[in-house]
# Entry
Amino acid sequence: MTAPADTVAELRALIGVAQYEETGEFPVERGYIWTTLSSVENGNPLFWDEDVADAVTGGFIAPPTMLSVWFRPHHWAPGRSAPHLPLQIHFDLKERLGLPEAVMSDNTIIFHDPVRPGDILTTRQVLRSVSDQKTTKLGTGRFWVIDVEYTNQSGALVGVESYTGFGYRRTAGPDSSPEASA
Amino acid sequence: MSAPAPAPAPVLLLCEVTTGDRLPELSYDVTATTVVLGALASRDWRPMHHDKDFAVERNGTRDIFLNTPNQAAWFERFLTDWTGPHGRLGRMTFRMLGSVFPGDTMRLSGVVTDVTVDDIGCGWIGVDVTLSVDGDVKTTCAARLAVPVDADDNPWSRTGTRWQPS
# Structure
């Protein structure tokens, strides 16, 4: 299935436009920090030893790679009428282009000011590009690049994530092995 | 009130690093718990990271698999095990080439690609990190991280225009 040209043009008109500004559902907190450190057996004293944290980072911070963790919505919340999806533009593209499957082929994170327990972060998503139709070993579809900008309650930039996704229709059997989910 | 504890000495200084240096390898036996714990720690509730039937039937994979945010946490741990707490990540670029499943032994290895000092005096190291299973590369990470240029330097003290991570 090929997406109508006007659909692609409408999507491309959104390139560079900040969308889906959202504030995190809860403040950055040490519970998830400890669980994450535990999941990868990370003993960096910056996150465990208050004296080291005070001396090196002026108090505890969150591991930089946890940036996106603070925006994954609760699996359920009272009164929510529609599921919130992180990287909503990615799912918009899948739906508008009629591409049921998707993988993330690469992902860049740039780390700015440290994130600290108690911070309330805000994100904005920005579509950077949508490719012409391509065929890979996974199927036929399109690549796209989405930036997610993160700021803290003071407006300081704490990071930017850039995702390259490939939305597609499968053309191979179930033995094909997608690289990563999205 | 006691005096604040003195800052610990940096573990790794820029002058101790040379292009081509290899980081100490990390090997880890992945279990279903590794995958599920990593997914839930990163608040990733998607079923392909905890429901094997879904992963097999919908994703065409042989089992549940490590999610990307948790792999990022593995790469961070691997890098800062080497630099110590003064090491500060500036940028990471991941390329996902294959999935990591329960039963796999993943190996992280890294090689220094460049050692530089920027215009502001911040010391930077480029490292290409590879996560592989049985010799097959599953994920690569090109990392740029700052380490102290001398014992009195601390990359974490850099803010605003004095921190140029990209």
